[in-house]
Structure of Mariner Mos1 transposase:
Amino acid sequence: MSNFVLTKQHLRKILIFCFNWKKSVAEAHRMLVEVYGDTAPTDKSCREWFRRFKDGDFSVEDKPRSGQPKKFEDKELEALLEEDQSQTQEELAESLGVTQQAVSAREPWE
């Protein structure tokens, strides 16, 4: 069984692929829903990402914003650690789309 953990960044890279293949937002969204179901981003979210790509911004990371930091599930962290226990906190944080401090506070070896 695969330990692959689907992240928002993976989905956004798929959106870049669709954008570069000149797919419409509706087509890209349909494809993601067909493959990933409820995990797929909303149509509105896909539209926002396509707008960013059209503006030349191909970063798949969220833009910094004020407010509460992103949360993640322990099972996501555990799956990444099962895949490769030698990953640094920074690498884990990047994979999860959170800060290194968020990973540090949740690491099972604390």
